Amino acid sequence: MVETSDYELLDSGAGRKLERFGSVTLSRPCAQAVWTPRLEPREWERRATAAFDREEGNQWHNRGALPDTWTIMIDGLSFRLSGTNFGHLGIFPEQRAQWAWIRSLLATTGPQPGAGPVSVLNLFAYSGGATLAAAHAGAEVCHLDASKGMVQWARENAEINGLAGRPIRWIVDDTHKFLAREIKRGRRYDAVILDPPTFGRGQNDEIYKIERHLPETLALCRQVLSERPRFMLLSAHTPGFSPVVLANVLTQAIDGLGGGIASGEMILAGARDVLPLPSGAFARWDSRAAGKLGTGK
After folding, report:
1. Residue 32: CB atoms within 10 Å
2. Which of 10, 84, 128, 136 has the fewest C-beta atoms lying within 10 Å of its C-beta?
3. Could you list the residue range(s) of the whole structural domain that residue 41 is in?
4. Euclidean distance between CA atoms 222 and 48, whole angstroms
5. Which among 56, 5, 8 is positioned nearest to 29, based on CA atoms?
């Protein structure tokens, strides 16, 4: 697959990041960027279509210059973007390497003889990047998020990618309640993807705190795995949840299943002279991989 992208990290530092999303360039907060920016402040101001900050409450500057929606493409996947009141756009480009890994792994897996497509459960699924990657590779996907608006956004992303006719179930629900029902119903999945929030709230004000609930979430995920599971992919943007932390909890969750775990940082990258920007961590279990622990990119 040829890697092409409408996304680019242009610079970071002084607690901010400057990113290009197609024709739109944004300056937004980034606590990890404690170094000095490469570009001068006037260059940031010249390049930025709009800026967002949280210093006096969430607010956009020059938001009128932003289109209501626009579309970008990353490695063959299209995403509809829109500036939200929280400064998000409907995409986390640091997940780009994970989407590529999903597509590559599923392309080499295929269905079991006499069985249907590989079944993938995507939890806390946001606007559907992992869902698009899995569906594009031929998987049958169950996409779940507690936000009705985000599920609709993901459905629109599937449509613009020509995936509306693929076998994708769109579910608005609390993750733990849904998993408990799937366990009781006997429904099983060959792979599970999850990107739990630091703090989340379900449809009926259910509270999710990653430091309290993640082990329970993974234990429930283990119970919905099929007899011949293929992979689990866990990612998080929570400060302190390092690759080692995620690898440890995932190791306990898949104990006895064999395979191997790789973990690492999710990175935003730009041109060669742009400093890479860490943006969360991942751990992924591959049932066909050798070894217990390793690092991945």
Report:
1. 14
2. 84
3. 7-81
4. 44
5. 56
pLDDT higher at 185 or 297:
185
- pTM for the predicted model, two decimal places: 0.92
Say if 86 falls within a structural domain.
no
78 and 8 in contact (C-beta within 8 Å)?
Answer: no
Note whether 262 and 286 are within 8 A (CB): yes
Looking at the structure, do residues 233 and 119 belong to the same domain, yes or no?
yes
Average pLDDT for 179-205:
89
Asked which of 81, 115, 139 is the last residue of a domain, the reply is 81
Q: Which residue has the tokens 């986390």?
A: 92
Task: Give yes or no: residues 48 and 176 share one domain.
Answer: no
75 and 146: one domain?
no
pLDDT above 90 (res 37): yes
Distance between CA atoms of residues 122 and 104, nearest Å: 17
| pLDDT-derived band at 80, boundaries 50, 70, 90 | very high
* SS3 category, 273: coil
Which SS3 state, helix, strand or coil, does residue 149 take? Answer: helix
Per-residue model confidence (pLDDT) at position 198: 84
